[in-house]
Design brief:
The protein is an alpha/beta fold and about 400 residues long. The chain contains 15 helices and twelve strands.
Length: about 400
């Protein structure tokens, strides 16, 4: 740092304490780098960073040290060559679709019960760009292959565990099909997290997360990521330099901090979700429970094979017998500890009404086709004592 002793008070107020020399120590925790600019003593070095021939930072829309640390952590957990971070999960889905080939004249094949906002993006935004979206039951491998043969899509988009019906996609089998036909496989791994499953090691081309959920895990930050190959990362990076769906350093730091307890949280949430699902499955006010950990779940055996002994996820959904929207709302209002909030994957237990929130953009006929009735409730298990969760559900169902 230059000597400022001879400078005016106003100048010293601006520059004092800044651009200190690099220390000879390393902090235990990754620091937050909120700067929007980087200074190099040699301008040739900055030129080389801009050119991509030298590692470094020039502007946070391109990259920043805190975001890079977060990306490297996710890459390690997902077994990826590289990761690109985004400001939200939807920004990540948008970018992955574009880089994977969703452009004018192309067809995108997506799981029938894909997340509502993803469905709306395909049906709305991408339709205006000349992209045709086609839905298929991703659990029916024959139907998937037939759809690929007929429509020749650029890509197939599925969710490891679907939202909100908790169907499990056979990623290894789907990968075999897509590779045989030269179709990119995009997997939204938000519900499973890399704790349960790593799709890249089973043939996926892009793995997407709303890092707002399990990766961050505390309900206090929004972020998204795409884990993929180094080649795809370069394409995503160049695109994001122009589009600017950039993850900020504060958000990256919060998400990186949350990531450190992912295995601890997920282990408890999976345990709680299984107990809750088994309890609801016996409740007289509940008609249907959707959870891969239940023996009667259609993909229970597949889930056991894919997730091994790590658990079956922290989310479940259930249908209250004969309930309409008003009945579900009264149930949610009666809850005293479980929180009615439009998110999941937090340390708190959360409930949501898919028909009026996550899948609100679908018409009643579309929700009926997918299998989302008005009486369906989604529950994301938190890390509370499970008996307290059950007691809260019991008293709310009794009042309903």
């Amino acid at each position: 740092m230059p000597d400022l002793s001879h400078k005016a008070f106003q100048t010293r107020a601006v520059h004092a304490g800044e651009r200190t020399p690099q220390p000879d120590y390393t902090p235990v925790s990754t620091p937050i780098w909120p700067t929007v600019g980087y200074v190099y003593e040699n301008m040739d070095d900055m030129d080389a960073v801009f050119a991509g021939t030298k590692e470094g930072y020039v502007y946070p829309r391109y990259a920043s040290p805190t975001v890079t640390a977060f990306e490297q952590a996710v890459a390690s957990l997902e077994g990826a060559e590289a990761v690109q971070a985004y400001s939200t999960g939807m920004a990540a889905i948008h970018a992955a679709l574009l880089v994977a080939g969703a452009r004018a004249g192309a067809t995108v094949l997506a799981a029938l019960d894909v997340y509502g906002a993803t469905f709306s993006m395909l049906r709305g935004l991408f339709a205006t760009l000349g992209v045709k979206a086609q839905l298929v039951d991703a659990t029916d491998l024959i139907a998937v292959e037939n759809a690929i043969k007929e429509s020749h899509p650029a890509l197939l988009l599925v969710e490891t565990i679907s939202n909100p019906l908790l169907k499990v996609a056979d990623i290894p089998a789907l990968s075999s099909i897509t590779r045989a036909y030269g179709v990119a496989l995009l997997v939204d791994n938000t519900f499973a997290s890399p704790f349960l499953f790593t799709p890249l090691s089973h043939g996926a081309d892009f793995v997407i997360h709303s890092a707002t959920k399990y990766l961050a895990g505390h309900g206090d930050v929004m972020a998204g990521v795409i884990a993929t190959s180094a080649e795809n990362k370069n394409k995503l990076y160049e695109m994001n330099k122009l589009v600017g769906a950039t993850l900020g350093p504060f958000e990256a730091w919060l998400t990186l901090r949350g990531l450190k307890t992912l295995p601890l949280r997920m282990r408890q949430q999976c345990q709680n979700a299984l107990i809750i699902a088994e309890w609801l499955n016996q409740h007289p006010r509940v008609t249907q429970v959707n959870y891969p950990g239940l023996l009667q779940h259609q993909q229970h055996t597949l889930a056991t094979q894919l997730f091994e002994d790590r658990g079956y996820g922290g989310v479940l959904s259930f249908e209250i017998t004969g309930a309409d929207k008003k009945t579900v709302f009264r149930f949610m209002e009666a809850l005293q500890m479980c929180l009615p909030a439009t998110t999941l994957g937090d340390v708190y237990s959360l409930v949501l009404h898919p028909a009026t929130s996550s899948h609100r953009s679908l018409t009643p006929d579309e929700r009926s086709r997918v299998g989302i009735p008005d009486g369906l409730v989604r529950l994301s298990a938190g890390i509370e004592e499970v008996n307290d969760i059950l007691a809260d559900l019991e008293q709310a169902l009794a009042k309903e």
